[in-house]
Amino acid sequence: MNAGEALIQPDRGQDAVTIHLTDKTGFESFAKGLKASQRAALQAQKFDGSGYQTAIVPDGDSWFAVGGVADPQNLSSWCLAKLAEVLPAGTYRLSKDASGGDPGPALHGWQTAQYVFDRYKKPEKPVGQRVLLTDKPARIDAARREAEAVCLVRDLVNTPAEDMGPEALEAQVEVLAKKHGAALETVRGDALETGYPMVHAVGRAAARRHAPRLMHLSWGKDGDPVLAVVGKGVCFDSGGLDIKGASGMMLMKKDMGGAAHAIALAGLIMEAGLKVRLHLLVPAVENAISGESFRPGDILKSRKGLTVEIGNTDAEGRLILGDALTRASEEKPDLILDFATLTGAARVALGPELPALMARKDATAEALIAAGKAHDDEPWRLPLPDAYREYLASDIADTNNAATNGFAGASVAGLFLDKFVCEGVDWAHFDTYAWRPQAKPGRPKGGDAYGLRAAWHMLKDRYSE
């Protein structure tokens, strides 16, 4: 993506093409103010003000653009996204009759609409940049950082496992640490057996160059509230010995999507200088198959000391998160947030668009939902019912990692994670899909961030000076 200040710039009166916005209800009134030839041009393009419609209208020796939106006076993140996708390269300015000329939240979609994943295939016809001017220059840096965080998630998730294995994920955290002067400790390979035995067990079957590891980045001042961000980094998930079918394995490069969210969120926190003591924990593994694979029926030790019977080797993400959440809890955090592409059950319940949210405290869940609604990234809360804890019972270990029935799979996975978070700690868990199966304006098909913006804006509100 050609992100950043290049795509949104301060309005200093430079030459720019005007963008007008209208809705279907107001289109007739809008059209009355145009010349007959301009109305004919809109008619020829079948423009009637419906959402995401676009049109180009001649205006003497020049032209202007028109977009259809839900409400020209209350813009969403995606109101200008379709225009940013289809307009010619150039510089644009929003008309004063639309939201007072202030793009506001639409700055986000203007940037993310121009995202291109070109690591392996270059566009046949590069279209260049479409620049949007704003007379609110103070918003540019924040809007740029947010869009770049979303596009970082996309890049990491879109990259195949061969090039985004545990080693590559570690390199990404190293870049983040160096950029912000953060401390980074990484435990790799067999050294994990002592401190992170479940991370080791899940990842030990992988080839040496994809050896498991646990990255722990720390940043900020001692004495500030401790914030822990944890992300599931299963860089490829074969299912282990409980192997997935071919169709189920096809998208498993995205199973490190939780880690991608956590890394992007940590970057936002540090770039903004949020007043927290940040701990980012990313367990990174490949759930591979070899003679070293952990087995159904095995009993694993955990960092917390709980023993875990393996009911399903394809429920591996919760295992590596268990050790990471235990380590996060040792910092006595004010809040733990974790992100994981954890269960198919969450997708059955909510589809790809809505990340499932589970939280111990109602106030935290409500703050995350409110932030998501305000920034077009709404999570949906699922419960952590005590009545379902018995589904994880084991006859020979402290807990099983999977239920034997098919009930409430997302919540039961959340209940497993809850066992590894210290009692009394404020904790919220995002079960996110990290993949967009169908393109929408500003949101191309492929890897995508769900819940990232909700979490970021909640944290800004919670830890603002």
UniProtKB/TrEMBL annotation:
MF term (GO), any: manganese ion binding
Keyword Manganese belongs to the record: yes
Keywords: Aminopeptidase, Hydrolase, Manganese, Protease
Annotated InterPro entries: Leucine_aapep/pepB, Macro_dom-like, Peptidase_M17_C, Peptidase_M17_N_1
Domain Cytosol aminopeptidase: 312-319
Single GO cellular component term: cytoplasm
Pfam families with a match to the protein in the record: Peptidase_M17 (PF00883), Peptidase_M17_N_1 (PF21337)
Biological process per Gene Ontology, one example term: proteolysis
Family recorded in the similarity comment: Belongs to the peptidase M17 family.
Protein name in UniProt: Leucyl aminopeptidase family protein
Source organism phylogeny: Bacteria, Pseudomonadati, Pseudomonadota, Alphaproteobacteria, Sphingomonadales
